[in-house]
Design brief:
- Six copies of one chain form a homohexamer.
- Chain A is an alpha/beta fold.
- Chain A is 35% helix and 9% strand.
- Chain A has a four-stranded parallel β-sheet with strand order 2-1-3-4.
- In chain A, strand 3, helix 4 and strand 4 form a beta-alpha-beta unit.
- In chain A, helix 2 (38-53) packs across helix 6 (166-175) and helix 2 (38-53) packs across helix 7.
- The first copy, chain A, is globular, with a radius of gyration of 19 Å.
- The mean pLDDT of chain A is 96.
Chain lengths: 266, 266, 266, 266, 266, 266
């Protein structure tokens, strides 16, 4: 079901029995070759497909199109909420869903820059609700859920999803080819490797995090190897993302609510 | 043009020459007969039509689906940001557009509860930018712009647009009939008139404002006379809304930037 | 009664039986000819007169002299709280009154720039109190309450109250002539009309709101036609403002508390 | 001069040459015998007298009637801003004065509960302005400025000013006897001494601060020995307060702006 | 006991029976001759000594090393939280202690700049807890508690403790001589006296507070007469500080919880 | 060098030439067998060892003992700042260091709950400084930096570091055996696996994050297999943590500042 199309009595009827899925996207520059809606378009397509597959299990909320993308603001077309503000937006949208009767909520994320502010929101929500309202609220970032094919398994050639890269370019070629300017695809210049920070996707996380505005790590706003993107790869990626998401949602719906374990031991 | 479909270099090329239009909507209960996306659906349709009419004049941003609807939270399906938070969201989205090069920005509003927080945002933005960046940033609420037909002129029978009323029901019957449950249309109970507060639409504003959660002024979440809505009325309303918006946008694009007038007098 | 002159046991005795009236004013430039206390002086005179007429019905709180006037800060003598801060001040003052036992509260406003932040405060207070404490809290802006004479009815010559205009000049000539520098009265330069924005008072609201600092819309800080102000007009305006306010207060005192209507229908 | 009565060009002319005096008061319970405006009434009388004495030296701003009195909220008639909010209000009012051209600003305080939030504001303002705008901004609490007569010197009998005490009762009997209910004067019950905390005025500060809501330290809202108040004592107190304030203001007007001393040494 | 060394069941066992002592320090410049940890080092030594003397009475929390020192930020090595942020930190640390079962909490302060923000925190905590949780939460600034020897009594030569002065230099020479660069001791230049503001320690508080960044009142970051510091003086100061603190803690542990006194009178 | 022991001129001399290392810890329950200072004690030992190894390369700041541990607040002894507040604390401490002249800053983290709020802080700092001040500011979480031995490589038996687990117990047995109550070591009860969420350490991250207060996922506050901890394992872990940190710091000191790459391409 799509929340958008339901009346309030309908939502009231189904809230307690279904999983609310709230897509969290971003409108931000994606290099010279991809539309600024890339993150929003992909996560929207993914969420709609999942809803089609599990129409009675989930209530699909309208996507939040704007995410936390302040690091891209030097590039036009980026519409961003600061990290702290985005955290608060997520908190209040989840509060609304809980107030409306949902106890199982999936924040379906399609933008790397959203991960930290959403986790910050989960900490706030946990402190607010755990002691009083049983609820399972999870953050799911689609490419992390989908597994190895988003981390360099064939047919992918570059080692991991980054930004406006082989992965996202492939997904857009598969889903919305009209939003890809293939002639503009260009591998960006990026800083020399220091062995710790994965400016692009070719170095693993080694326990060191550095946060820099995009113009300091990419000459054109893209990362990775967008020139290797193809629609065929995109189909494989998307199908796997859909399958892993549907699999997760089916299981998540059955997760029990957690109990206070202190009574059982001390 | 639609910002969603543009790359960042394209946005950079057009930002200074066009009007950015940012639709501000709401996801909230609309009585037992209308979908919770009513406000979002209407303003989205309106914005898309305007963009089709003036493709080279405006850059249509993705709509912000969630608005300030805390007064409706007692009804499921409402997804709301508090007034103060929504104000901050509007401020940061406009900051993003200005950072991206836009100097003419229209906040196209489709929800009454958004008006105050958006005006609060305009005051903040004025204080922040007026002294340094010339920009024309306006709030346009579509039914206020469209004039008499939204205020009781025939064929409309009730005196003014309120909420889930004759007007909105008509618009939805015209635009998205599948989202209207005609069999559920029911005039709500509301408080007795006190001569000052327009609980519904049948009393004019008399200089007194009172703010109450919806459950205190409507028994089912709707206001006005939804039973009088028809698709024919909806077409008239929508066409007039489109026409007045397009007229405004064409003129707004030509408004000059204002100058500090103190130099001219004292 | 005046709260200022009461002891706490006296306030405790009367709070539940009376209407608290809290005047909200502003200290801000009013052109070259009016004192910066114009808004505060007028609303104070009005509130005192109402208290004299209805001594047993209302408890008059001390006026909050400072309002939200950041748009006037380029002119000396303006003492302003930002819109967001003024909202919070209104929220806490109303919280104090409710804590003290008042259930009927009138925010008597005398400054246009306060309207939006007060409405923002009402939304916050509604969310905070509606579900638990029955209370009627209203915003009354005196010139909107007083009706046609404040909107161009004879003897007034200009179509509406704006700022340091025919209306306010007349009121000050009637109430505090020593605070009017008649020799300094001068119609300001303002931007050319664009048909939508009422830079002064001579164009009606057409659904478009734009917020600019005063120096961009007035060369000397005044608006409208202050040169047309007279003490005689001021008396007519003030008497009507008093009458309409007293009429309202008498009725407001009898308004019932609203009830949750959901029980009655679904 | 009184800012209230000046036009903006007048303020502009005098701001740089005068001292702005902003009285900061409180509306809060003052026991069963004093009006809730006690703090506001006293500081207002004091400020007006100083302005009368030094008409060309100071610009007297309208008093901020509401202070930080949350500890008194259990007693009706208290209208309070929380400490953090009051701090922000002071910050923005001072910002307004600086923006208007004042460089010498006196925050004339009449309420003990305001001292901490005003000092917090001074720290914020120092961080904001010191490096860029030369200004002398001071907090003056009138009874601390006035010296020994406010600390137990004859004719006063109790050792120090506290709240609704011998001192404030005396001042009110002198200035506004109609606001004193002599028949209600009653020494309150208070906690037993622990040797460190001056519940009332009879123990000196010993380096330990504890903050409790008034109802835990006074049975009727007053402190000290209000029954010892007389109008004669009030006159002595008030005259000394006026004299010390005028003396200070005359000197303060001549204080030089401070300079960065680092250049002179290292 | 030291909280640092306890397990959570141990803290749970002792929280209700002991006094929690939380040292609040600062890391900030202390002139050319003292280490930036001076405030932290002194208060840490003091707290440890008290814990050694009263091992079963108190639970010593780890010191908060960073305080509110924005006025010193022009000097390297200062690590500061703004006044408003430090207030919030104190609030949440006390909330944690109360949540953990402590009802007697001493905020042992070692930095003058912390006093105002801590008092601001106490006001917030009082408003939050007084009505529901009985607790005694006090601010103790060690040199104010210790009495005359910190205010000019022999052997001290300068009249009061200020900053990086005779007193702090003496304490450091006694406690951590290796952190004193005796050859760098130099009396700073400071502004000329105006008779009201104690730039250093040689003028008493006269009811006027002014807050300026350190570089405007000291040429090298120190105040007072550090050249008069000796280890012998330091021993006397420290011993007295320890004695007065232990005396206070022993008594504080026995203070009863306060009761609402309104029931007893009106 | 240790900042604590330096004077401000010394810090000024070395800030631009060295790496500032700021340890970020936590005071929170660590099961029935470990002291609440476990995270603080470990990261402090690590930082001191690194400073001893690289005395001329780094300036070691005093550790911030308190972290973001609200999820542990149901267990006494936890002293926590909320996630949003801890973010702000990190922001201001880094601002202080930058103001003091440091351009290379390492946030050395020893608590899992700090990771999200520190990343949130990095995003804020990037937005604030990137365009104006070249600086490299990194988050280093010691066990993520140290590599495989902290992820199940022999001699470790459980697959990953969690909380009060084999890893932390081993480190404490090596570093501070007096703070380990071996007789209290007990494997906690935890929820049944759902295949996605690593309640303890025995399931890998699969793209789904859920945040729950500790009492819902552990019956005694510990996680993993603390009973497998030994001092010998602790030595291996600690030595590797020190080695990897020193290696990183040596390289980090040489990292160049990043440049805006846009100039090079478009």
């Amino acid at each position: 079901m799509r929340l958008n199309e339901m009346t309030w009595p309908e939502v009231g009827t189904y809230a307690g029995k279904t999983v609310a899925v709230l897509p969290l996207a971003a409108i931000e520059q994606h290099g010279p070759h991809l539309a600024v809606s890339t993150d929003a378009s992909i996560v929207d397509a993914l969420a709609r497909r999942a809803e089609t597959s599990l129409p009675n299990e989930i209530v699909l909320c309208p996507p939040m199109p704007f995410g936390s993308s302040h690091h891209h603001l030097a590039f036009p077309g980026t519409m961003s909420l600061s990290a702290e503000l985005f955290t608060r937006v997520v908190v209040e949208l989840v509060q609304s869903l809980i107030k409306g009767g949902f106890h199982r909520i999936v924040l379906l994320n399609g933008h790397g820059g959203n991960i930290t502010p959403i986790k910050q929101a989960l900490a706030i929500l946990s402190h607010q609700f755990d002691a009083s309202i049983p609820a399972n609220i999870v953050l799911v970032t689609y490419w992390e859920l989908a597994g190895k094919v988003f981390a360099g398994a064939p047919p992918m050639e570059s080692p991991a999803l980054s930004h406006a890269c082989e992965y996202e370019t492939s997904l857009m070629l598969h889903l919305y080819p009209e939003m890809v300017h293939r002639e503009q695809v260009q591998r960006a210049q990026s800083p020399a490797s220091n062995g710790y920070i994965p400016w692009e996707e070719d170095e693993p996380y080694r326990g060191v995090a550095l946060f820099k505005k995009t113009q300091f790590i990419s000459s054109n706003g893209s990362s990775g190897e967008p020139q290797k993107g193809t629609a065929e790869k995109g189909k494989i990626l998307f199908d796997q993302a859909v399958a892993s998401l549907c699999q997760f949602l089916s299981e998540f719906k059955k997760w029990p609510m957690l109990e206070d374990l202190r009574n059982q031991s001390i």
